[in-house]
Amino acid sequence: MIRSKGGALATLLLLLPPLALYVGVYLLPMLAFGGASVDNGVLGQRFPRLAAWAASAAPVDDAAAVALLADLGVLRPEERAEAARMLNQDQPGFRSLIMTTGNAAGTIGPGLAALRSFDARWAEDRFWFSLRQNLEPVTWRHFRKALGLGLSPDGGITRVEGGDIYLRIMLRTLVIGFEVAALTVLIGYPLAYAVVNAGPRLRGLVLGAVLLGFWTSILVRTTAWVVLLQTNGLINGLLLRLGLVDAPLPLIFNRFGTVVAITHVLLPFAILPIVNVMRQIPAAQRDASRSLGAGPIETFLRVYLPQTLRGVAVGGGTVFILALGFYVTPALVGGPGDQMLAYYIADFMQKQLNWGMASALGIMLLAAVAAVLALWFVPRLFAAPSARRP
Amino acid sequence: MALSVGFGLAFLIVPLAIVMPLAFNGGSYLSYPLEGLSLRWFGAVLHNPPWLAAIANSFRVALGATALALVVGGLAAIGTMASRRLTAIVLWALFVSPLAVPSIVMAVALYFAFARLGLNGTYLSLVIAHALLGAPLVFVSVLNSLRGLPPELEQAAASLGASRWMRFRTVILPLTLPGFLTGAIFAFVMSFDEVVIALFLVSPETQTLPIALFAALRDRLEPTLVVVALSLTLLSGLLIFALARLRRSAAPLGKDQ
Lengths: 390, 257
Description:
Chain A is mainly α and 390 residues long. In chain A, 71% of the residues lie in helices and 2% in strands.
C-alpha cells in the first residue's frame, strides 16, 4: 500500500475503530480482570479507623475494638455482607462473626472485654490477625492461596499444610497438556507424512479427515466421545458383545477419557504445522541420501526427521497452549479429579462469587501460556539475522 | 508406517462416523443396532421451540459478529499494512493476540466488563465478544491478501489520478475480496461453534446452539443431540467446500499457493 504525505493521518483514522474496540472490550477488560486478583474492594476502603490501628502495630486492645465497631456501624448492610464474605475467604467462620457483630454494633459497649463477651470468637487471635493483614487497598491473599502460602503471625510467608491444592491443579493441567501434545504429535506425524508424501487418493482422504476435524465444533466431537465412552456406550457394548470383558470398563469421567477426547479435538492443530514444514523439504534430498548409500531408515532419521522438528515444535506447542485452557471437554468427559485450571476459574466466578481467586488463577494460566510463547519467540529474537523471517 | 497412518485416520474419523448415524435411529437409545431408520429425531428438533430458538440465536449472533469482525479486522489489516515497519509489528501483535488468550480468561474478563456496563445476557454482548475473536481471523486473512497484492497496481491507479478512497474501492477491495470472504467464513464458524465465552454471557433468552447442546449433554443423552451435532458438522462441511472454492478462485492472484 502506498504511503503518502497525508497518509499518516488517514492511516490513524483507519486504525481508530479497531483500536477503540480492542482497547474497550479487550485491553481494559483484561487489565480490570488482572486487577481483581489484588483488589481488596470494600475491605481496602471502608475500614479507615481499623486500618489506622492495623498500621500502628499496636496490640489487640480496647482501641482496636472501638475502631472495629465504629467502622462496622457505618457500613451499609450490603457492604458489610461483602466484607464478611471476603474475610471468610481468609478465615473460615469470619462471615457469621462479622454479620452478627455488625448487626449489633450499636449495642455493644466500648472496649475489648465487651466485644468478647458479645462473641467469644473475638478472643481468637486468628481473626484479629486476618483483619490486620487484609485492610490494605492491595491484597496478595488470592495469590498466596493459589500458591499454597500463608502468613505467619510474625508477618513472614509460610507454607500452608495441605494448601497446595491449586498448585496440584496447575501441575495436573500442565501434565494433561503435555500428554495431549505428545499424543497429537505421535499420532499426527505419520498422518502429516501421508498428506505430503502419499498417493493422491490417500492424501485426499487424510487431508479431508484433518480439515473436517479442524472445522467441526469442539462440542460436536466431545459429544461423539461421550456417546462412545459411556458406561452403556458403544465401545463398552462392543467389548461386552465380543466377550472381551465381563463388566463395562470405566472409560468416561476419568483421565483416560479426558486425554483421549482432548487429543482428538486438538489433533488437526498438530498436523497442519507439520504438513507445512514437510512440504518445504525437496524430494531430491531423499534421493541424494539414498544414492549416497544411506538406507531408508537412516535417510529418514538423519535427513528427513531433523528438518521436520520445527513443525513438530510448532504443532506440539500450539496443542499444549490450547490444551492448557480446556474447559468444555474435561467438564463433559472428565471426573472430579480430571478438571483443569479453567474449571476452577469458572467455579470461583460462577458458584463461589470469588472474583479475586478467579482472577489469580487466570493469571497463573496466562503465565503458563506466556512462558510457552516466550520459549518460541525469544530464541528467534536472538537468532542470527539471516535466520530471521523476512 | 501404513499401520500408524491407518490408526491415526481411524482415530480421526471413526468416532464421528460411528456416532452420526445414530441421528437416524428409530429407537430412543444411542446404541447399535439401530431400531429401524427414522427421521423422527429430526422432527423432534424442528418441533422443539428451545432448539429452534437456539438455532435462530446462533445465526443472529454469528452474522452480527461476522459483520463487526469484518469491519474491525479489515480496517486493522489495511491500517497495519500502511504503517511503518516497527509500528506494523506492534499492531500485528496486538491484533492477533486475542487468539492466544485462553477462552476461559477472556470469558471471565468480558463477564466483568459487561457486568459493569449492564450488558450481560444481551445479544450485543455476545456479538461484541465473538467479533473480538473473529477480528484476528479476518485480520490475518486480509493482511495475507494485501501482502500478495503487487504494489504496482495501486501505483498505477495513483498515477492515473485516483484518490485514496477510489484506489481502495476500485483496485484493492476487488482484488482482496477472497481474503475478506475467507476471513468472514472463519469468523462465522468461530462464533457459531464458540462455547466457553457464550456460557458466561448468555441469558436463557439469548442462549446459542452450542450452549443448548452443552446443557443437554449434561442433562441426558438423546438422539436429538446427535441430530444437532450432525447438522453442525454438515454446516462445517459446507463451509469447507465454500472455502476450497474460494481458494481456487483466488489462486491466479495469490503469488504463492
